[in-house]
Amino acid sequence: MLESMVYPSFPNREDVPKTAKKRETGQAQKNLNDKNARRYLIRLANINFSKGDIWATFGWDDDNMPEDEERAEKDIKNFIARINYRRRKAGLENAKYIYIPAIDGYARPHFHILISGDGMDRDELEDLWTKCERKNTRRVKPDDDFLITGIATYITQNPHGTKRWRSSKNLKKPDAPTRSYRKFSRKKVNGMVRDFEELKAQMEKAYPGFKFLDAEVKYNDKVAAFYIYARMIKKRDKGKEKPRK
Hints:
Strand order of the largest sheet: 5-2-4-3-6
Radius of gyration: 22 Å
CATH topology of the domain at 47-167: Alpha-Beta Plaits
Distance between the termini: 16 Å
Helix content: 25-40%
CATH class of the domain at 47-167: Alpha Beta
Shape: elongated
């Protein structure tokens, strides 16, 4: 998956439009930070997890309810340690994982987790979580275009959960972003934001070999310019496609 962010660039300070300065509120900055954090998690999930991996929700029943978040985190870490112990005995590397706890007093404590699915069936995984009887595990089934974006988006939007995730150290990280100052002119952008089909066509022209998926357009009145965030997927021959490791 490829993400393209199109925004204005001003070579000289005097080129910046003279608009009224408005300081970002603390909440506005927090919202932006949350959005960027969610997008980064979605990137991590798409890079590291695919068909056959597991996403699950585990919780605590009344007899095992953690007294605080610290205790809940310890339970989760012990759970992952037991998983890795089983994996090492089977000659496997430690599991890759991303988990998000939802422990804030408004709902029954639980956590969502994406975890490596090789070498372990769902029954075995569920048996290793001993804090409740009802467990929800599923095999990951990626979408042809959006991969596992839907799953990653779901687990980041839990209204009672923290926006901070925890992850294993063995995750592959997203590539560093590249920059181009000539790919889209202001005139071209103005046409793209007014015509969805033009936006799609220009994106696919700018990134050969990629198929346009969707885009978000925002207008920034501070600099009197449009911003575009678009997602694309690399075109592939399904007949020759191999499962990702």
